[in-house]
Design goal:
seven-stranded mixed beta sheet; 2 domains; methyltransferase activity; about 15% strand; 13 helices; two-stranded antiparallel sheet; alpha/beta; Small_mtfrase_dom; Rossmann fold
């Protein structure tokens, strides 16, 4: 469906903070303004609208202008991506136009597109997103995949070793602890992929705890997850043993070096919880706390998966070497899709009696 430009342009302007002008929030796009105002009979398609907002975003130095425009317009039309739009989606454009007008100025203020849309896909889940809860990145999807690969590998080895010995199936899957759950992306993805598993998710930010609860209920996973408002610095850890010792600890902890914080993108500094990012002078503050906690709550031969800064794998290995009492060792380091050492697989060995 097409919409008259004059009506569209009038609505776009009147809903911006500076009524009738593209004031300090919006830098004008002269070419488009001339094009859209030259004829009252000219029509605009969804493609034209995406092109318009792309130019506006670029004029305001918004990162990923094309992708932002496509995501927002497609979201308003009821689709995940512009490529997935069909005729029926576009027909809905006429009644949902007002939402696009309210969402785009938020992006111009450098609000991350995930917060603008209020939702984002992670693995095969669609999760609610709210500021300032940390937005899960693509690298963290790789972290989840590593856990699944390790689990399937162990299951295959177990089956091969015991194929001649009948054993009743284990009715209970692994118990997983996620430290710093944010939106619940990691824990909920693992619960979906491992049907017999159970999870405990903790975060020091109450907003994050509430958002994880909301996402768990939307995905109907709330009966298999215990979500706690808990700080890893707390001296009390017994509450984490709701189902006994855990099989897996997983975390994307705050690991940004203090000196690197000022170099983060403005939209991150302005909207996201900086406490979910900064890891102290060496990026290891929270990582060390997790490592100190692990021996008390992790089963013997249990696994821990951490997302870290590329400088951390060597630092963590050296730190564990100097703390043998923790009974932990780095069994593997994995690279992200950019080829940087990003993920640590740490295991607990059984202490000698």
């Amino acid at each position: 469906m097409k919409v008259p430009v004059s009506a569209l342009y009038e609505k776009l302007l009147c809903l911006l903070p500076h009524h009738g002008l593209l004031g300090s929030l919006l830098n004008p796009c002269p070419r488009l303004l001339r094009q859209y105002s030259c004829s009252k009979t000219e029509l605009v398609t969804a493609t034209d609208l995406i092109s318009y907002w792309k130019d506006v975003f670029e004029a305001n130095e918004i990162p990923e202008a094309q992708a932002s425009s496509e995501y927002i317009v497609s979201h308003v039309l009821g689709a995940k991506t512009f490529q997935s739009l069909n005729a029926s989606n576009i027909a809905r454009y006429f009644t949902l136009l007002f939402r696009e007008q309210s969402l785009c100025p938020k992006r111009i203020s450098k609000m991350p597109v995930q917060y603008v849309l209020g939702e984002w896909d992670f693995q095969d889940l669609t999760l609610k997103m709210k500021p300032p809860v940390f937005i899960p990145r693509p690298e963290t999807e790789e972290l989840v995949s590593l856990v699944l690969k390790d689990k399937y590998k162990k299951k295959k080895l177990s089956s091969a070793c015991c194929r001649d010995i009948w054993q009743p199936p284990d009715p209970l899957g692994p118990v997983i602890l996620e430290i710093g759950c944010g939106s619940g992306a990691i824990a909920l993805s693992l619960l979906r992929k491992l049907p017999q598993s159970r999870a405990i998710a903790i975060d020091k930010l109450e907003t994050a705890v509430n958002l994880t609860k909301e996402n768990a209920e939307r995905l109907q996973l709330q009966k298999r997850i215990k979500i706690l408002h808990h700080d890893v610095f707390s001296s009390s850890w017994e509450c984490l043993l709701h189902w006994g010792l855990v099989d897996i600890i997983i975390s994307n902890p705050p690991y940004v070096f203090h000196e690197d914080m000022s170099h983060l993108a403005p939209e991150i500094l302005r909207y996201e919880d900086l406490g979910a990012l900064e890891g102290g002078h060496d990026g290891m503050t929270i990582i060390k706390e997790i490592l100190n906690l692990a021996p008390y709550i992790l089963k013997d031969f249990g696994s821990m998966f951490l997302e870290v800064d590329p400088r951390h794998p060597k630092m963590v290995k050296n730190w564990l070497h100097s703390h043998p009492d923790l009974s932990l060792f780095v069994s593997a380091t994995h690279k992200d899709f950019c080829g940087k050492p990003r993920f640590l697989h740490i295991q607990k060995y059984k202490r000698r009696s």
